[in-house]
Specification:
Radius of gyration: 27 Å
Distance between the termini: 103 Å
Order of helices and strands: HEEEEEEHEHEEE
Strand content: 35-45%
Structural class: alpha+beta
Helix content: 25-40%
Number of domains: 2
Shape: elongated
Number of helices: 3
Length: about 210
C-alpha cells in the first residue's frame, strides 16, 4: 500500500483558504469593535464630565490667610442643584498639593458652616486617568505618591446651599507675609466608579 498522500483538490484548498480569511476577518473586526468601544467609552466620559462642569456652580465666597493659625481658610457655597465633589487643592507658588484625607501629599479639612466638628461626607473612588492628574496638578515626581495610593482619590461631597448652607475649607500651611498666592481648587466627577478631574476654580490671597 502506498504511503503517498493524495493531492488536495483545488475545491478543498479554496474552501480552506476562504475559511482562514473569514477567521482572520472576524478577529480583525473583534479588535476594531473593542477599540471602538474604548473610544466610545472615553467620549462618553468626556461628555459626562463636560455636562457636569457646565452645571456646577461652586462659589468661592472668601479666602483669607490666618497667620496666627498658619492656615488658609476658604468659604465655599454650592449654588447648584446637585452635589459638588471637592478634590485636590494646589498652591502653585510653593508647589504644595492638598487632598481630602491626605490620600496624596498633605491633608486639608472641610467643615459645615462655622462648626468645628461637623464635616461633609467624604467619598473614595479609583482614580480616573492618573496621567491627567499628574499633568493638571503639575506633579513632576509621582514617586512621592505611595504605590498603593496612586489609584485612589477622595473627595468631599458638598450639598447645595439651600440644604446645608456654606462650607469652610482649612488648609494647614505657613505662608510668607506680604505675598500674593494663587489657590487652585479642583472639583471631581464620579463616572463608572472612578473620579475624574472636572472643573478648576481659582482665587488669590495676599498675606
Amino acid at each position: 500500500m502506498s504511503n503517498l498522500r493524495k493531492p488536495v483538490s483545488p475545491v478543498l484548498s479554496a474552501v480552506i483558504l476562504a475559511a482562514a480569511i473569514v477567521a482572520v476577518g472576524v478577529i480583525v473586526l473583534m479588535w476594531i469593535s473593542g477599540h471602538s468601544s474604548m473610544v466610545i467609552r472615553q467620549s462618553q466620559i468626556d461628555l459626562m464630565r463636560s455636562e457636569k462642569a457646565a452645571k456646577e456652580n461652586l462659589v468661592i465666597v472668601h479666602a483669607i490667610y490666618d497667620a496666627g493659625g498658619n492656615k488658609v481658610i476658604i468659604y465655599l457655597i454650592n449654588m447648584g442643584y446637585d452635589r459638588v465633589f471637592l478634590g485636590p487643592i494646589r498652591i502653585p507658588e510653593i508647589g504644595e498639593i492638598f487632598t481630602p484625607g491626605g490620600v496624596w501629599f498633605n491633608p486639608y479639612t472641610v467643615y459645615v458652616n462655622d462648626t468645628g466638628n461637623v464635616f461633609p461626607e467624604m467619598v473614595e473612588f479609583k482614580v480616573g486617568g492618573f496621567p491627567e492628574y499628574l499633568e493638571n496638578l503639575d506633579i513632576r515626581d509621582y514617586t512621592q505618591i505611595p504605590e498603593d495610593k496612586r489609584e485612589i482619590m477622595k473627595a468631599y461631597s458638598l450639598k447645595p446651599y439651600n440644604t446645608v448652607g456654606y462650607y469652610r475649607a482649612e488648609i494647614p500651611v505657613t505662608l510668607n507675609a506680604g505675598t500674593t498666592y494663587s489657590i487652585e481648587i479642583w472639583s471631581l466627577v464620579p463616572i463608572q466608579n472612578k473620579l475624574y478631574l472636572c472643573k478648576l476654580y481659582t482665587t488669590q490671597i495676599t498675606t
